[in-house]
Amino acid sequence: PLLITSLLLFVSGVPILEKKYKNRQDFREYAKITPKFVPFIGKKGL
Asked: 32 with 44: CB under 8 angstroms?
């Protein structure tokens, strides 16, 4: 599980999507308030 999580967060999943959507304003706002590891919680918690 740790290897797959690391690959998604640092190699294949998140970096590719961030590169693709970095110029979209709505994505930048979403990325500010959403943690990478558990996206559905939000940075303010439950």
From this structure: no
> In sequence order, what are the residues at sequence separation of 6 or more whose Cβ sits closer than 8 angstroms to the Cβ of residue 3?
none
Q: How many domains does the chain have?
A: 1
Range of the domain at 10: 1-46
Measuring CA to CA, which residue among 2, 33, 31 is closest to residue 14? 31
Predicted confidence (pLDDT) per residue in 13-39, tens digit = 888 888 999 999 999 998 888 887 766
Least confident piece of the model among 3-7, 33-37, 38-42: 38-42
